[in-house]
Amino acid sequence: MVRPSFKYVYLPADTQLPPEERTMIIPEGEEKEVSCLMDGLKEYFQSTGTLSDAAKEAHKQSIISQLGENASRVDLSQLDMVTGMQMVENVALLANSKDVGYVGVNMYCDDQAIAKELPLNPRACQIAECCGKMVQVRGDVFIARIFDNEDNFKRLDFTLGDLSSSAPWVLQAQQQVRKRYQQGPPAESKVFAGDRSRAQTQAQGAAGLSKPQVRELSSAEAAKEDGNAAFKRGDLPAALAAYTLALERDPTMVVAANNRALVNIRMERFGDAESDGNMVLQHEPNNVKALLRRASAREGLGDPGAAAADFIRALQLEPGNREAASALDRLRPPPKPEQS
Predict the structure, then answer these.
(1) Beta bridge partners of residue 331, listed in sequence order
(2) Residue 99: C-alpha distances to residues 164, 290, 319 (Å)
(3) What residue spans do the TPR repeats cover (predicted)?
(4) What's the rounded Cα separation, in Å, for the pair 48 and 307?
């Protein structure tokens, strides 16, 4: 029996090397279709550039300085694990929302690229900019396509023919950016390429409005509000169903995913809660709520090391976060008994 496979593109940082189309065979097991690419990329990034002892120590000291008075709560073994952990950073070039048939395109990067002092990848920066993502990409990257509507996940082919600024999926990504800004850019959002003048015009126009503008809730937002109401009255199954409906209508709604993660934790559905946290952090890597909820899910799954890494990251971003500080106290290994 021939195993299913999918194509993806390798885009090296060295512009003297051509992009390369690769094929991955999906291992047996339903969950492998989700994890096979990420597992392979972790191994690749581990083999391309290493953190020197000096870089690891600098990273560790940076974390300690960011933690401030909370540094004493972190065990050194936890810090060693965090500084040495190889992860894959995901940049969602095309969000898998309903308007594009739940098909998304992601760029996968080495999350330690800066610490490893990897070179800038100009072609990756350019393709991200074409999609409205103003990011500085370092090191080799990989680009792949997925279908994900919350109920089903499938890896789809992304070929060298798709690696073009005029490809249909790039135009869809540009339309997504324009649509967001037509609704008004959120205060914390970045100004994307090609939309800087639009954002400035909107800000100037907003300053001159004499009356508040009322925007009707979208169907996804309405479902999210239903979930909030159900959660407040303690109806967790109804809240779960409402947040799931919101995400079916708009898979990029990180607020609904964050809220559903909390519901899943309360219902002890830790695997689902971790998946929700992953989804939020793909779009917003510094979302503290998502880090805390993914950490709680990982603790529930019996992975205290990964949980501690998320709690430490949350404290880096919010040194005064009591939930993270208390959790790290709880996760600290007990002191070894003194030998007589």
Answers:
(1) none
(2) 21, 25, 39
(3) 220-253
(4) 26
SS3 annotation, 255-324: HHHHHHHHHHHHCCCHHHHHHHHHHHHHHCCCCHHHHHHHHHHHHHCCCHHHHHHHHHHHHHHCCCCHHH
Tokens at residue 140, please? Answer: 């080799």
Task: Determine the Cα–Cα distance for residues 309 and 158; give it in Å rounded to an integer.
Answer: 32
Residue type, 291: L
pLDDT at position 330 is 86
pLDDT at position 331 is 84
CA atoms of 163 and 167, how far apart (whole Å): 7
| Residue pLDDT, tens place only, 23-38 | 999 988 767 888 899 8
CB 79 within 8 Å of CB 315: no
276 by Cβ neighbours in 10 Å (0-12 / 13-18 / 19+) ranks as buried
Structure tokens at 337: 């008994």
Answer whether 98's CB lies under 8 Å from 245's CB: no
* Cα torsion 70, 71, 72, 76: sign: positive
DSSP bridge pairs for 9: 21, 143
Cβ atoms of 148 and 110 closer than 8 Å: no
**Residue 112 C-beta-side C-alpha neighbours within 13 Å:** 22
Q: Which domains does the chain possess?
A: 5-172 (no CATH), 219-331 (1.25.40.10)
d(CA 255, CA 260): 8
**What is d(CA 323, CA 212) in angstroms, rounded to the nearest whole number?**
37
- pLDDT tens for residues 45-81? 988 877 667 777 777 777 788 787 787 777 777 777 6
The two tokens of residue 340 are 């007589």
Determine how many CB atoms are found less than 10 A away from the CB of residue 151: 8
Strand partners, 24: 6
Distance (Å, rounded) from C-alpha 298 to C-alpha 290?
Answer: 12
Strands (E), 103-257: 103-110, 141-148, 153-156
Evaluate whether 276 touches 261 at the Cβ level (below 8 Å).
yes
